[in-house]
Amino acid sequence: MKMLDVVATLEDLPEAHLAKGQVGTIVDELDKDFVLVEFADIDGVAYAIEPIPCRKLMALHHRPALAA
Question: 67 — phi, psi (to 5°)?
Fold first, then answer.
């Protein structure tokens, strides 16, 4: 995962007040295992900015995947 990737949480993260499936944008790569993710509402107002382990995130894609 890299900067500006759109991601979704794979599980509830109660310590961050985030539910499974919430969508955010990676705004910083903290190290090989953690990224900083900004979560914003439909109007673009951020409601959480949290360091999250990459293993708890799924990258989302807006274009069709290329056939192998």
Answer: -70, 145
Tell me which DSSP letter residue 39 carries: E
Query: What are the tens digits of pLDDT across the range 8-55?
Result: 999 999 999 999 999 999 999 999 999 999 999 999 999 999 999 999
What's the pTM?
0.88
Give yes or no for a contact between 49 and 24, defined as CB atoms under 8 angstroms apart: no
Q: How many CA atoms lie within 13 A of 5 on its CB side?
A: 16
Q: Rounded distance, CA 8 to CA 16, Å?
A: 14
Domains and CATH numbers, the chain: 6-59 (2.30.30)
